[in-house]
Amino acid sequence: MQVALDDYVWAAGIATDLVNTTAEVWQGEDKLPDLASLAAFAELHSLPEPSRPSDLRAVHRLRVTVRDLIDHPDQARLITGATALTTPIGDVTLLTDSARWAVSVRPDATAADSLALVCGVGILGVVQSLGVERFRTCGAPTCRGAFIDTTRPGRRRYCMPGLCGNRVNVANHRARKLSQAGFFEAP
Length: 187
Description:
two-stranded antiparallel ribbon
């Protein structure tokens, strides 16, 4: 497996998806409770499939590490933490077919190693290209999620826009309807 260093948007998206699988985000339901769910996550993101129970434990530890980095977006800390995720896993090479730099995963790397590499590349790429202000917690009042904003304008507010953003919009709509209903009633 190779991860191109300029694919940081893809990689940061995977890091965001990983940190938002916790029970903390899903109000008690861990989205990676077993090896089968981790395999589905890996397949969804075109990552190497996990094969050992130790992969699940390693990914759970990685998830905590990545979340901690997102929650404390200090540039030096992000660089140090993301470098630690990528350093022991592979070698930086120049891809001859496209003249792009990439990191190649060692042949003996685990699924957790590959995921750590992807998360590290995503974090490093965003710090370098977009800045530390792109590491955020979800703007939905009831959500505990976090994300790395790789949108062009940098105005993303929710960890899962289709879920959290929709919940906020529905709550606002209901509040407006309730307010309008009270406004039109006779005293």
